[in-house]
Amino acid sequence: MHRIIFxxxxxxxxxxxxxxxxxxxxxxxxxxHRGFKMxxxxxxxxxxxxxxxxxxxxxxxxxxxxxYFSKNYQVILxxxxxxxxxxxxxxxxxxxxxxxxxxxxxxxxxxxxxxVIGWSDGGIEGLLLAIRHPKKVxxxxxxxxxxxxxxxxxxxxxxxxxxxxxxDSLKKLPVSFETKRQLKLQRLLINEPHITHAALQKIACPxxxxxxxxxxxxxxxxxxxxEHIKKSNLWILPNSxxxxxxxxxxxxxxxxxxxxxxxxxxxxxxxxxx
Length: 274
Hints:
The chain is an alpha/beta fold. The chain has ten helices and eight strands.
């Protein structure tokens, strides 16, 4: 009896320790690509699903999505270049390079096509992946993405002002690897992206464009993105800011899952009444 109790306690302790290991620090792997090592983790089995985090984020931002989607998908997540464990020594950074990093990861994993979820900068990279590597993206869901870094046309002016102030503060600090990294990330926010309507029109995959009605990305800009993608659905969440995968985690997960599983249908003529 004592041995059985001890074994149960040991198994419980083991499970508890394992459960406490945070996503993003869970014995992932690296690929070598264009001068840096990209860290990634994979969860679950099934149809591949790539999930992309935003600026300053990491794999662990999706603790609400990984358990849900890994029940039915092979969920692939990476720390983007200059984020988390994907250390990058370069002096500059752009979304095209980060997007091509993700494409290289999919090539390494021998994945020809997958569904994609992107949040914020991850949404920008999701759009660019569908533009630059269209065969890789089966269906795409992006939330909080923008096409241009504009304080009037796309982004809340307060955010742009805050980022400019942060850059000024970083420039006054002693030069170090971390200050250089932070400068790269902040400059991304005010200098990029530059995605044209013509480029959006090249996106062939069904795309769910998501935003909050109080997002730092203007809802009208989110609508603009949807209007220029041929097979798009638009979803604006009420009383939500930029963090739709957190604020509406259960509804977000279920809606995106249904979108991935449901054939895209464009309503025409009488069908628009339904």
